[in-house]
Amino acid sequence: MLDRRSLLVSAAAAGSAMAVPASAQTLPAAAPVEPDRQAPGFYRYRVGDLMITAVNDGVARRPLDGFIRNAQIDDVHGALDAAFLPRDSLTIPFTTLVIDRGGKLTLIDTGNGDSGAPTSGLWMTNFRAAGFDPAAVETVVISHFHGDHINGLRLKDGTAVFPGAEVLVPEAEWAFWMDDARMAAAPDGMKGAFQNVRRVFGPIAGDVKRFKADSEVVPNVTAVAAYGHTPGHTAFAVTAGDGRLMVMSDTTNHPALFVRNPEWQAIFDMDGDMARETRKRLLDMVASEKMQVAFYHAPFPATGHIARDGDGFAFVPVAWSPII
Ligand SMILES: [Zn+2]
User: Fold this and answer.
1) Do 87 and 121 form a contact (C-beta atoms < 8 A)?
2) Which residues belong to the signal peptide in this entry (predicted)?
């Protein structure tokens, strides 16, 4: 038992041990810290000799009612409880990747730009905090044409965010969204998505390069067909030396729901049955091969591994490391 006197003695001893050495007074002062902000949202890791930087674009919250087409809300609440997540809404993060190959920068997806929820739009601040310059981006690779992945290419006022970059998109995705007949036939609720694709890509339509599934998109990055979420939705296998990373894109939305329950279909899955088959196939593959994975909508830094767990899978995030 500590009494008041021994507490005072130990406090005095701690005080003398923590006295600031004279030399520390010459160190630069810490930058001012905003008390309601996290550190900048970037995280680096290596895949072979490639440097990967995950760059966060904030989050969006959405109600859970109706979010999953084929699950009872009680079961959804059970999955949230198991992950210690609140039941009232789902917080969906956005995380893009920067691949640095000897100073040549490739982005995979671009975030929400200035078109997303007020809790998103942090991408450029975080990208710059990681030491990058948007003018130095050589290649932008797009997984699919939903707004949270492409709107970072072009601000609402029309400004191109990466004017020096070559833009590479899935051929099947381009064929679907740029088809005027499909846009005319689409239900009213989907017309906005078609129009947004034209807003983003229209001014550069002649310069956009389209890639096929199973092709090497840039060195070390191979497109993997992951259709269902959208008609041309694409994952990417990043390989270098012994390093292998599967960029899952939106093969699952939040892992606590859809990695654990790969049968569940989010309302964003345009072809729910195909999306489910793709999800199960890719999760099974990365679990068997113990490949590192990156998700667009997993909690930051949105990378880890997939383990088998009952009739589903579990996402095991990486351990944060200061050693890269
Ligand atoms: Zn998405």
Assistant:
1) no
2) 1-24
Per-residue pLDDT, 224: 98
- CB-proximal residues (5 Å) to ion ligand 1: 148, 250
| CA distances in angstroms from 150 to 139, 140, 167, 267, listed in the order given | 14, 10, 11, 19
Distance of CA 315 to the CA centre of its chain: 14
Q: Report CA(297)–ligand 1 centroid distance (Å).
A: 7
Q: What is the mean pLDDT of residues 87-109?
A: 96
CA of 94 to the centre of ligand 1 (A): 7
Q: 């003695």: which residue's tokens?
A: 9
51: CA distance to ligand 1 center in Å? 23
User: Cα of 150 to ligand 1 centre, how many Å?
Assistant: 10
Of the chain, the end-to-end C-alpha distance in Å amounts to 44
Burial of residue 202 (number of CB atoms within 10 Å: 0-12, 13-18, 19+): exposed
Statement: the pTM of the whole predicted model exceeds 0.85:
yes
Rounded to the nearest angstrom, the distance between the alpha carbon of 253 and the centre of ligand 1 is 7
Residue pair 59/252 in contact by the 8 Å Cβ criterion: no
pLDDT in tens, 213-240: 999 999 999 999 999 999 999 999 999 9
CB 288 within 8 A of CB 306: no
d(CA 317, ligand 1 centre) in Å: 19
Q: What is the mean pLDDT of residues 180-186?
A: 95
Token output for 107: 């982005």
- Among 298, 313, 309, 303, which residue's Cα sits nearest to residue 259? 313
- List Cα–Cα distances, 241 to 14, 139, 186, 220, 244, in angstroms: 49, 22, 45, 10, 8
DSSP, res 110: -
**Residue whose C-alpha is closest to residue 282's, from 211, 220, 213:** 213
Q: How far apart are CA 308 and CA 291, in angstroms?
A: 13
Q: What angle do CA 76, 228, 161 make, to 5 degrees?
A: 95
